[in-house]
Amino acid sequence: MTQFLDISGLCARIDADGQEKEILKGVDLSIPPGEVHAIMGPNGSGKSTLSYVLAGREDYEVTAGTVNFQGKDLLEMEPEERAAAGLFLAFQSPIELPGVNNANFLRTAVNAVRRARGKDELDAVTFLKTARAAAKELSMAPDMLKRNVNVGFSGGEKKRNEVLQMTLLEPSFAILDETDSGLDVDALRIVAEGVNRLRSPSFSALVITHHQRLLDYLVPDRIHVMAKGRIIHSGGPELAQQIDREGYTRFLAEAEAA
Amino acid sequence: MNAITKDRSDTLAPFGTRLDGVTDPVRKAAIGALHRSGLPDRRVEEWRYTSLRFLSETPLAAPAEVYDAGQIQAQLENLGLSTGPLADLPRLVFVNGRYAEPFSVLPAEVKVSFFAKTQTFGSLSAPDRDPLTALNAALASDGAQLHVPAGKNGGDVLLVSLGQTDTPVSFHPRHSVTLDEGAQLTLISIQAGQGRYLHNPVLEISVAAEANLKHVTLQTEGQDAACLATTYAQVAERGTYDSFVLGLGAALSRQEIHARLAAPFATVHVNGAQMLGGKQIGDVTSVITHAAPDCISRQTVRNVLDGHARGVFQGKVFVDRVAQKTDGYQMNQALLLSENAEIDAKPELEIYADDVKCSHGATVGALDDDQLFYLRSRGVPDAEARQILIHAFMDEALGLIEDETARALCTQMLARSFPVAGESA
């Protein structure tokens, strides 16, 4: 128990074409305040499902387990309440919102979260100043604030837009679901730097990735290996290189034997 | 065969003796047609999705000539016509179908006459083919007749129809707009009111060569009203008729438009949007006729339907044998916010030319779960997230309105008719 984020025995399933499919089969994971943890694992191990369940997506049914977030029962909260409480999910495939201006979207989100946190709303001018500065730090083209949310954005632009949202919403806990996928090395470094800037004793993150590369820039405190709906191994940052060299076979075999 | 021989006069009962004792030949012919056809019921193909039963329940008298000026003033203020950018525009205000001079300001570059004086019916409408047009011809008492001379720009003109009644009435204004060669005009029609009434206007539009008419209609009639409006437009060579109808009000509304591209390189836009809730019925019916080669027609109609509301879209594009190189596009899209809302869409292409580019489509769906979750995961509360997505859907349609004043008016009136209840309906 860390008193920050504690996931215990979490089981969840999804209704896929009338078939109920168990995806999370007892996830135990604790993340202390101020730490960045990474989850690696083969495709289909339940990494993205874990991120969706934590963010409150309704398609998944939690069948067992608890998630305690800063002393609150996370699973009882609506998605917007989770965001207000400080949770942020950077989507693996960011959603396009045709007809919704990106700057308006960001301001609406920021002010909704500020309202819920008991802070004053930002006026349009102050907000735009903040947003422009943050976008510049992420090397985003200035017109991306004027365009519709994610519409016509390249893969890299979408991921940067996720990090921009994260920066402006000031979460205490961020989940980055394969934010590195589809990024070239330069974009990867920019995104990693964006996350690193947020690192502080009051910011934790869970980074879901397939590649060790991101973790070179965004060095985690702990790495967890996830397979078949559970965490089967945990270790220090050096685990990334080991996985890169050897793959997951050894961990899977060990888990099988246990 | 019995449909032809059967007298369907009984459906005209709500109008009582108002159809008797007419001598004018046009009106007599219209009444004759009306007695044969009656008001259409749902067995008539063009009225299959929209029932006029609403009308048969109550006698509809001729409106009194006096009205409460204070209430009219209040209605104009409520529509935002007394202050702000619309306050300075010339306007022709009609109350219960009659010209109300004290509230009107005549435009400078537009010649205006009134049907009450001229009694000229125009030649574009076809009372023998459409009962609602016949009803209008039979009972019309007034209407605006706008004429922009060649090469003149008439600017923005408001044509405002207000219903104001304590007892059920019907009024049948007869309007016309004529643009001579190279003339321009932006006509903003506003249909609004209070009380139980039938507003049954007919508008004839003639756009000469190289002329350009922008026409935006805001239908925000009273919640007990029926608005059955028919527009006949004819566009000559290189002329443009660019229309948009926003439907928000009335228990029952039908905006029917017949647009004829009569000469080469003419353009018509028959766009629209409606947002309905409760038990509202909103019908957008159009017949676009390509009667000449090289013409362009565009139609995008978006519907947001909540509660038990029902939207109807009937869009026919007819391409004559001579109308080669026709470029036609038609799209109807509906967003259903409740399980009890309904859209009936009947797009039709009838093409007799062999070298044309015509496409049409229809979509219907609920709010997108992924988009909703995305917004909520950013802290936006559920109800607000729904509104953002509904606004986005409608804004894309309103973006088709070129005239900024008209677009701002529509955007504002649309925002005011929020919130639709969404999930709670």
TrEMBL record, chain A:
Pfam families: ABC_tran. Transmembrane segments: none annotated. The keyword Nucleotide-binding applies. Keywords: ATP-binding, Nucleotide-binding. Residues 2-253 form the ABC transporter domain. GO terms for molecular function: ATP binding. Belongs to the ABC transporter superfamily. Ycf16 family. This is FeS assembly ATP-binding protein SufC. The lineage of its organism: Bacteria, Pseudomonadati, Pseudomonadota, Alphaproteobacteria, Acetobacterales.
TrEMBL record, chain B:
Pfam families: SUFBD_core (PF01458). Residues 169-393 form the SUF system FeS cluster assembly SufBD core domain. PANTHER family: PROTEIN ABCI7, CHLOROPLASTIC. This is Iron-sulfur assembly protein SufD.
